[in-house]
Amino acid sequence: MLLEPGTGNTAVISASQIAENLRNIRERIAETARRSGRAPDSVQLLAVSKRQPLESIRAAYAAGQRAFGENYAQELVARSEQLSDLPELEWHMIGHIQTNKARHVVRSARWIHTLDSVKLVREVGKRARALEAPQVQRFALVEVNVAQEPQKSGCSPSELWEILEAIEQEPSLRLSGLMTVPPRSDNPEASQHFFEELVHLQQQHGGRSRLPELSMGMSSDFEVAIAAGATIVRIGSAVFGPRPS
Ligand SMILES: *Cc1c(COP(=O)(O)O)cnc(C)c1O
Question: What is the distance in A from the centroid of ligand 1 to the CA of 48?
Answer without folding.
Answer: 6
